[in-house]
Input
Amino acid sequence: MTEIGLSYPAQLGFADSELGLATCERARLEALGWPGCPHDSLMGEGSALVEVPFGSRTIVEKAPLHIFSQPVSPDLLGLLFAARGRSPVIADLVFGAVVLEAPSPFGGLIDTTIPLVPTVPKGPDVALLSLQTTIGPPSLRYSERVKGRLVTFEPKRMLLDVRCPRGGYRFAASVRFVDGTLAKARTTVRCPNSRRD
Amino acid sequence: MPGTVAASAVGIDDTGHLHLLKAFGSVLLEEGYAGGTLPGQAQVRLVVKSSVSATFSIAARGGTIHGGGRAALHSSGRYSSFGGSLWVSGGSGRYAHARGGGKLYGTIDRRTHAVVVQAIGRLTY
Output
């Protein structure tokens, strides 16, 4: 994969979410790994399936993935994805995403560009095969100073508006591959019985 | 000429300190006092996506002023700042024919949802 686009519903609450109360610069993440990022910049976690050359063959490795808030640039909200494969091959992958406008019924588009990571000369690149992420996982905790004391709290996630649109919450995704082909998909999450508009 | 009223023009430099009334989806409803050249109680509806759009009303002495704005995000993290342009589209009372425009700047504290917004421009009414 070289590019992933995810369109999310207009009812998804970016406005009052507390995710990403700090930001992490890409250079810092690449130099120090995710321990180098401010903890309050962590927004999500998941895993990535990565294909890497190993000797005379290629292997598929599952790597843990973390998502961070990155500084706005230029005038666009951004995310940083960091996958960290450790066994049997050390393979680190850092790539960014920006939040763009999207036509109705979507609230925005998260546009992710995945770099081709070279390995050995004339050898295959590290390839991202699949991605699974949770933004705002239940285990996420931030901290702040209250009256001089460090206090841990659970940041408010991105909540869906209680008024569910007719037909449900709409999502769309597109994936572009290194050979130039494009795959698209759409899905609708039905309204919970208590939320129909 | 008899029966006509001269239009007034005034430079605007107002700063509002707003608190959250309600949040849903991408929308923040805020209100608070705006002080400056045209002071009054302000209500602002912010739609926060990859950019920020706003509609506002200010209950000033003699009438209410309505308008809108659009701004780009300049920073994220706990304090999200934005900057762009605003316009005045009308009003009531002495501001019934209000028109104008200028610059809009603001900061959202994403922990408390307190908003500080500054409007600089020109108003005719």
Observations:
- Chain A is about 5% helix and 50% strand.
- Chain A touches chain B through 34 residues (CB under 8 Å).
